[in-house]
Amino acid sequence: MDTTPWHGGEVALQTRVGSAARMAEIGPRVIRDHLIAQHAGFYPLLPFVVLGTVDPEGAPWATLRAGPPGSFLGVPDPYHLTVAAAPEPDDPAEAGLQDGAGIGLLGIELETCRRNRLNGTVERRGMSGFTVAVEQSFGNCPRYIRPRPAMFSGTLRRAQAPAVSDRLDGRARALLAATDTLFVASSTEAAGQSGCVEGQAVSGCQGVRSRTMALSVTKSFRITATRATFLGRPRSVSRS
């Protein structure tokens, strides 16, 4: 029985850079089907989490949800993570947060550069939030993360409806050109259209045009799971 945690795109990329054999040995040891004690204690400390979802048309979306630490994220047992976040109908990613949908999640503590990831399945039983049934849980290297303070202010603001487009307007291009961190979501058919989300430090988005941009990213991005899948369906979202 094949026990590899890697999908076909990841294996192809690992093979290209000569690390397939090593990753085949490492993968089952570091990617688990449950939250270890260290991760279970980590998530409830966070004021926000990054989600990767896939909408009914198959397009991946990266988004954020936030709440007060201690009650926002919970770990009732090693196989489930609860997220106390009401639906946000104007968020394109919300369409991928239905019961039974695949999801990718990134928990990141920006002050300490700690981060952990998990992939799983959404279990939604009401409007107050949802649960993620854990399928893959693993830590991520803190290198390249830009430290900064992050806290939940407790002030709720009504977000403007996002403008969905296949190109970037002037305001979006200016925002991207000045940014130093991006969260990218991707999906793969082999994983049942589950979401995958990854944060990458960048030194700027150079040559930002209406439909393309060049990223100055870390070398490690060239062999990540996200790169193995994120080129499939380009979409653009501008949200303020």
From TrEMBL:
Superkingdom as given in the UniProt entry: Bacteria
Location of the Pyridoxamine 5'-phosphate oxidase N-terminal domain: 38-125
Stated name of the protein: Pyridoxamine 5'-phosphate oxidase N-terminal domain-containing protein
Source organism of this protein record: Methylorubrum salsuginis
